[in-house]
Design brief:
Order of helices and strands: EEHEHEEHEHEEEE
Low-confidence stretches: none
Radius of gyration: 16 Å
Mean pLDDT: 96
Strand content: 25-35%
Shape: globular
Helix content: 10-25%
Bound molecules: NADP nicotinamide-adenine-dinucleotide phosphate
Largest sheet: 8 strands, mixed
Number of helices: 4
Structural class: alpha/beta
Number of strands: 10
Number of domains: 1
CATH superfamily: Dihydrofolate Reductase, subunit A
CATH class: Alpha Beta
CATH architecture: 3-Layer(aba) Sandwich
């Protein structure tokens, strides 16, 4: 069981623009050519912050100009928010707030030995890192810069540094970097 931050980022370390746009991301490549299809098979539970959840509501579930679609994850999902957010029919979404540690314990139980996916954003993942609960980062680094935006991981982490375990070229649009977070 591994707790993984799997995300895409611009070359200068942003996962979305300040107004939560991902329009820069999709032209860079096909998700099916990344490690995503094999990654998601091993995920037993996932967590995200409210901006990510609301992005999904706007762009995936209730996208303009087409019929609503169903929630894309079979795994239980925990959404962190201090606000009351709408639920998605048929989705196993649990709304939580505050300390990530008890939530992580619940996620572990629900994941039945499979991995925990921290979808983002970066500050929420930072809270898991601070609690010593982050094991791996898997970042699809896109071949673009954004200059500003929502940060990949707003922490200063220098020593011990992350341990680079693999780097893979995914066409001209992405490099997939996998890092282990050292223990102790
Ligand atoms: N490039 C990619 O692959 C990728 C991956 C994931 C996400 N994204 C995008 O990146 C953006 C991420 O946005 P973001 O950086 O603002 O992060 P976010 O984690 O999605 O949302 C942040 C919000 O979550 C709530 N929150 C976080 N921790 C909490 C806690 N412990 N307890 C209660 N509430 C908590 C707070 O809002 P409230 O309390 O006000 O609700 C906080 O402002 C989104 O646009 C998303 O679509 C991109």
């Amino acid at each position: 069981m591994t707790t993984q931050y799997y995300t895409a980022s611009s070359l200068d370390g942003f996962i979305a623009t300040l107004d939560d746009s991902l329009d820069w991301l999709f032209p860079l490549g096909d998700i099916n050519e990344t490690g995503y299809p094999s990654f998601i098979k091993e995920v037993g539970a996932l967590a995200m912050g409210s901006a990510t959840y609301e992005w999904m509501l706007r762009h995936v579930i209730n996208a303009e100009g087409r019929e609503p679609v169903s929630w894309p994850y079979a795994q239980p999902a925990w959404v962190f928010s201090s606000r009351r957010l709408p639920n998605v029919e048929g989705a196993d979404v649990r709304f939580v707030r505050g300390d990530v540690r008890p939530v992580h314990a619940d996620m572990q139980k629900a994941a039945h030995g499979k991995n925990i996916w921290l979808v983002g954003g970066g500050e929420l993942v930072g809270q898991f890192y601070d609690a010593g609960l982050l094991d791996e980062l898997i970042v699809q680094v896109g071949s673009v810069t954004l200059r500003s935006g929502k940060r990949l991981l707003p922490r200063r982490i220098t020593s011990p540094s992350f341990i680079l375990e693999s780097a893979r070229v995914i066409g001209p649009g992405f490099a997939e970097l996998r890092y282990r977070v050292p223990r102790g």
